[in-house]
């Protein structure tokens, strides 16, 4: 079973890229972030035409998440992260696919930091960690994936000294991510490639992609029930070089069947 995550940075603006990638790689499940489209503007028909259906939680201009599947039933569990009923930002979607709980998330960026946006990021992170603990307590296969907007270690950034004051790399963000993983989750890419330079995001400026001046901020966290089923993982690096593409590349894992 192949599961992918992709921050599309505007699903309608990047639709040709998304469809090309889906047809070329045919993942079984796809988690999308940063749709930047209201619910009614999601391109469901175009996606169905290449063999996918799913659920989505849109939001005008910003945010938005979706879970797509190919030839698999999808059962929606929730479309908001617990802990703040007044939070209207579309950043979390959870479903069961093929007996696996899948949480698709778009964690707040948090810049400028310090400030209100960073405070919101940390509160959201607290809510995520609390919900993640309840998911682990289910004692079932769970995947948490998406754009975490966190650079976990210096290995995950080109010239990390330039990111010291950024919300993605501040100690509070890294500590929250470490606390999350410390609950018992497996960082899938780091399990298979513990020392390798791996990036999932390259800024549009200063020829970052051409220089491979990137960040690893899109992550797969696996519950203990899936740790032994992880057989492959990677980044579709070349997609970042396509015309009119997102500033993120798709990330994927391959799980053995039960």
UniProtKB/TrEMBL annotation:
UniProt site (Transition state stabilizer): 149
Site, as annotated: Interaction with DNA substrate: 248
Gene Ontology molecular function: any one: double-stranded DNA 3'-5' DNA exonuclease activity
InterPro entries with a match to the protein in the record: AP_endonuc_1, AP_endonuclease_F1_BS, AP_endonuclease_F1_CS, Endo/exonu/phosph_ase_sf, Endo/exonuclease/phosphatase, ExoIII-like
Site positions (Important for catalytic activity): 218
Source superkingdom: Bacteria
Matches recorded under SUPFAM superfamilies: DNase I-like
Entries under Gene3D superfamilies matching the protein: Endonuclease/exonuclease/phosphatase
Record Pfam families: Exo_endo_phos (PF03372)
Binding locations of Mg(2+): 7, 34, 147, 149, 247-248
Domain Endonuclease/exonuclease/phosphatase: from-to ranges: 4-248
Residues of the active site: 106, 147, 248
CC cofactor: Mn(2+); Mg(2+)
Signal peptide: none
Keywords: Hydrolase, Magnesium, Manganese, Metal-binding
Cofactor note text: Probably binds two magnesium or manganese ions per subunit.
Any single GO BP term: DNA repair
Keyword flag Aminoacyl-tRNA synthetase: no
Family that this chain belongs to: Belongs to the DNA repair enzymes AP/ExoA family.
Record-given protein name: Exodeoxyribonuclease III
Taxonomic lineage from the root: Bacteria, Pseudomonadati, Bacteroidota, Cytophagia, Cytophagales
Gene: xth
């Amino acid at each position: 079973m192949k599961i992918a995550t992709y921050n599309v940075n505007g699903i309608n603006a990047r639709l040709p890229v998304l469809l090309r990638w889906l047809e070329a790689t045919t993942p079984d499940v796809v988690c999308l972030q940063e749709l930047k489209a209201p619910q009614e503007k999601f391109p469901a028909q175009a996606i169905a035409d290449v063999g996918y259906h799913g659920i989505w939680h849109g939001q005008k201009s910003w945010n938005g998440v979706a879970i797509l599947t190919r030839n698999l039933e999808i059962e929606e569990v929730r479309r908001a992260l617990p802990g703040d009923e007044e939070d209207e930002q579309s950043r979390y979607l959870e479903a069961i696919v093929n007996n696996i709980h899948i949480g698709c998330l778009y964690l707040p960026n948090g810049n400028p930091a310090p400030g209100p946006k960073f405070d919101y990021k940390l509160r959201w992170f607290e809510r995520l960690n609390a919900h993640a603990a309840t998911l682990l307590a289910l004692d079932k296969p769970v995947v948490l994936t998406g754009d975490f907007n966190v650079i976990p270690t210096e290995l995950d950034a080109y010239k990390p000294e330039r990111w010291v004051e950024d919300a993605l790399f501040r100690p509070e963000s890294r500590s929250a991510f470490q606390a999350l993983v410390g609950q018992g989750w497996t960082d899938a890419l780091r399990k298979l490639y513990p020392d390798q330079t791996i990036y999932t995001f390259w800024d549009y400026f200063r020829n970052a992609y051409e220089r491979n001046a990137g960040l690893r901020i899109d992550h797969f966290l696996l519950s203990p029930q899936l740790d032994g089923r992880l057989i492959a993982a990677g980044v579709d690096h070349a997609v970042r070089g396509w015309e009119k593409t997102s500033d993120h590349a798709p990330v994927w894992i391959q799980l053995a069947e039960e």
